[in-house]
TrEMBL record:
Superkingdom of the organism of origin: Bacteria
Gene Ontology MF terms in the entry: DNA binding
Keywords for the protein's UniProt record, in alphabetical order: DNA-binding, Transcription, Transcription regulation
Ranges of residues in domain Peptidase S24/S26A/S26B/S26C: 221-321
Identification of the protein by name: Putative phage repressor
Taxonomic placement: Bacteria, Pseudomonadati, Pseudomonadota, Betaproteobacteria, Burkholderiales
Residues making up the signal peptide according to the UniProt record: none
KW Transport (keyword) present: no
The keyword Transcription regulation belongs to this UniProt entry's keyword annotation: yes
Pfam families per record: Peptidase_S24 (PF00717)
Amino acid sequence: MTESIHPTAARLLLAAASLSQEGVSGPSDLARVLGVSPQVATNWMRRGVSKEGMLAAQEKLGANPTWIRTGEGEMASAGVKHTPTEIKDPNSIYKAPVSEPSEIATPDNLDPTTLTGPQRIRASLGPQNLTAETLASVAAVGADVASLWLAGQGPEPTLIQAVALQNTYGVNSVWILKGKGTPGVAVRYDDEWRPVTFKNWHLVPVKGMAQLGDNGYWAEIEYGEGYVATASLDKDAYAVRCKGDSMRPRIKDGEYVVLEPNQPINPGDEVLVKAKDGRVMVKEFVYEAQGKIFLLSTNEAHGKISVERANIEHMHYVGWIAKPSAYRAQS
């Protein structure tokens, strides 16, 4: 079986057969005469001749680019002499074999990191049936390069070119360049804004205020009042207002920590530790060993400390950090 070639390619073949002194019997000869790669000439047969190809035909053969593009006017440019060809059907010059399109590589059937950038471009943009000219205008490359990309060949795309393809076609620029992630971007600039509403906001009581004391310890200096708005799911949650810089930049002066007494504590969690002597610390829990709790401050000036487990009144999980604006005087 065969398929008809693109009309512009048909006219180019007729022009080459008529105007060239070397003889043209197919895309390989056409590529040689015009100084392009055989793959580019073959792509012209299916997708049409690029603007660069028409200009090359004008320069090398004296063909009329307008005639190649539209069929209007004379085959040869003004002043070019030629012997009319006897060929009536360009498909008699070149019969394009019909073949099933190769499977487009995706993360489901092939590791995309093993592909080249042009192969990933073909995999992601092939289903959109783009022309080389359209792709070239988006990526700011020549139509010949774009034609190679659509065939999974050619030079590697640059970051700027990949981002241009992402902005226009919604393909993931990182996937094109590195094969990492998914071919499609998760969010595009024109996506509808559909925020998820969280309905469990409620008020938890402020039970105290702690102020930085010596060696990074906090001292509970007064009983709190009022409430803080939070979405904590712990039924016994409460808040403590913090003063000082022991936890900067994680917790700033005047902010509230919302404590969740019923939440299990794991290494790396932030915790509020209240010692039996009244000291209060908001630290990062590191580990527990040999009857001691080891804690770390995000403020390097205060370093790591250890506290005997027997001297701890309670250690509660820090579930939230609330801004001063979350404070409510009444429930």
